[in-house]
Amino acid sequence: MRFRFIAPMLLAGWMFGADAIAETLARVTVEPTPMPLERELDGVVEARRQATLSAEVAGKIEEVNFDVDDYVEQGEVVLKIRDREYRAGVAQARAALAEARAGFGDARLEFRRSQDLLKQKLISQAQFDRAEAALKAAEARQAAADAGLARAEELLGHTIVKAPYSGVVVARHVEPGESVSPGQPIMSGYAEGELRVSADVPQSLIAELRARRVARVIVLESGESITADRITILPFANPQNHSFRVRLELPRQPLPLFPGMLVKVAIALGETERLLIPQAALVSRTEVNAVYVIDADERVTLRQVRPGNRFGEQVEILAGLDAGETIALDPVAAGIALKRQLAGAQ
Question: Hey, CA dihedral for 317, 319, 321, 323, is it positive or negative?
Fold first, then answer.
């Protein structure tokens, strides 16, 4: 008799403990949230700034300092071309300039003497004219020598190829020891973090997009999204499918996006209501997604739901949950409460 009397008391106490735990659970009541009505299309990530560096002088490559997938800071030396011939050209141009300057100095002195002699009528006008012409010719030779030195120094500078901006190498077209000629591709890359997305938008949606200018880019793998900074609509349609090419400029962000990736572009067409819950409240196990629901009697149940897109730290629930229901924010604590609740019911 004593055993039968104590057992219900123990059971009640255990159940009271489970209810008490449920009452302390952090929770939120799910309510519809006004959100844009969207249409999703396929898009492709592109680099806003991408370039292929080309050789500007001919010569043999001495060193290549970067390879595919390397990050290059702006101004770093990407490649060096053997410069012995170009250094010799600079030295020759400097010598020619020194010679031209000396000749210009002699011609200037001769012209001044001719001016004085002409005033004294000791030389003819023709002799003076020849001295003046010689001065102009010497001045022109000095200018040509100046230009020749500038050109030689420029060619020498082109033997060192530097990165025009910080970015990532995507292709390397040459190897050390190869000979290159002007215009030959050397290395290709793009500016990291400066991305955009291109998408073909049907003609039926383009008027609404022009009016609202709001769209998101969604990462397929994670469902994370980012709102476009600026939207550019090309002012002509593709005559084959009557769609407009649209470019969405993306802000700098930590999402794992790279040129060439396929993404979804969500275009805002109006307003709708979505059932959103905190991402942390969602329990994901393999292919099953669920939340812990707390009813009016503080009973905890695990219910399977179907999530949709993510919006920052929140995720949309497409099925399995109704507006006005309460869910636990901490799945771990809710799981403990459920276990104790089930144990107390046995």
Answer: positive
